[in-house]
Design brief:
alpha/beta; about 350 residues; 14 helices
């Protein structure tokens, strides 16, 4: 299947500015995926795609890795909203690295007017204690910040965003991270913390949120994606699309792939090609070695393509929109992000 072709999903008309592609009602795009699948890259590309045509988009991370700063080649992001890039059409992508300690102090200021007590709390170790002994509270604070950014537009607050993209924890922890009501059940039955959690869940479980999962065409990432979709649905959290990242087109046509996967490519044909390239005759030691290596490489390639076809089929059976992004041999930089964002736009994700 060619790179960038849509799988098992008919795209909505996303040609009009602000149409939102396949997710016109979604304001909070949560991006997760197994480690190594490129979820941070996908989140950044999605933010650029959503910001096209003059929209203002927040791209935030919560894992403390400063992955966004590395992608956009900027200094480490503070707990402050900073402009990262201008998107095609004049839109803007802003960035925010959410720190649990700062989020807790912000929470205390909002609900208890205790911001000035921050230095005392730090000296006492109360901040570390609160976010370590009650990890559910940490997730309430992190997801709560994303929801606060989403609600700015409703409230007519200053500096609103048209969409928020959250680079979230990996698939294995995403349901627990988002399902904050369950996490704080034993921590707070009533009071501001419980009220905050209920408020967060009202947004996370609504049509205004979509949880997108990033995967590769490999057995383990696809299995984790499948498990993640099932867990999200069991928790009544809205599953978005699946982004198949770093795809590569077959290097052989269908007939050659079938031969390579079974009896193997015709050795005389390969040997003739090796000789024509000046790499050694069919009877020379070097020619035989190169021919053997090429035949083995063709067999391995056919096996990989067969496996990828199987994994594509598994993904298509999950019943979600699927998008594909290619493997970029030149590495990842800002120009690459713009290219990936264009492909997501063309496929209707934004």
């Amino acid at each position: 299947m060619p790179i960038g072709v849509r799988l098992a999903f008919v795209p909505a008309d996303s040609s009009a500015p602000g149409a939102g592609g396949d997710w016109p009602d979604v304001l909070l795009h949560v991006v997760s995926g197994k480690g190594g699948t490129g979820k941070t890259t996908v989140a950044a590309a999605l933010a650029l795609a959503l910001a096209s045509d003059g929209r203002r988009v927040m791209l935030m991370e919560v894992e403390g890795r400063q992955g966004l700063a590395q992608l956009f080649d900027t200094p480490p992001l503070p707990y402050d909203e900073r402009k990262l890039s201008v998107a095609p059409g004049g839109g803007e992508v802003w960035g925010l690295a959410v720190d649990p300690e700062e989020a807790l102090l912000e929470y205390l200021e909002m609900f208890y007017n205790l911001r000035r007590a921050g230095s005392v709390l730090r000296r006492m170790g109360a901040v570390d204690f609160a976010t370590t002994i009650a990890p559910g509270l940490r997730d309430v604070l992190l997801t709560g910040k994303a929801v606060e950014l989403v609600r700015r537009k409703d409230k007519g607050s200053a500096n609103p965003y048209d969409a928020v993209v959250l680079d979230a924890p990996p698939t294995g922890r995403i349901t627990r991270f988002l399902n904050v009501n369950t996490e704080i059940a034993g921590l707070a039955k009533v009071g501001p913390i419980r009220t905050q959690a209920d408020s967060v869940m009202a947004v996370l479980r609504s049509e205004r949120t979509a949880v997108h999962l990033t995967t590769l065409l490999e057995e383990m990432p696809v299995q984790e994606t499948s498990d993640g979709v099932a867990e999200l649905r069991d928790a009544a959290l809205p599953v978005g699309g699946i982004v198949v990242n770093m795809t590569r087109p077959p290097m052989l046509d269908a007939e050659s792939l079938a031969l390579a996967a079974t009896s193997g490519l015709p050795r005389p044909m390969i040997a003739e090609g090796v000789a024509a390239a000046g790499l050694g005759g069919a009877r020379s030691k070097s020619g035989k070695a190169i021919t053997d290596a090429l035949l083995a490489e063709a067999s391995d390639h056919a096996a990989r393509v067969t496996l990828e076809s199987t994994e594509r089929e598994r993904i298509s059976q999950l019943g979600t929109p699927v998008y594909e992004l290619p493997f970029l041999a030149g590495g990842m930089d800002v120009a690459s992000l713009f290219e990936l964002s264009r492909l997501l736009r063309e496929q209707g994700m934004a």
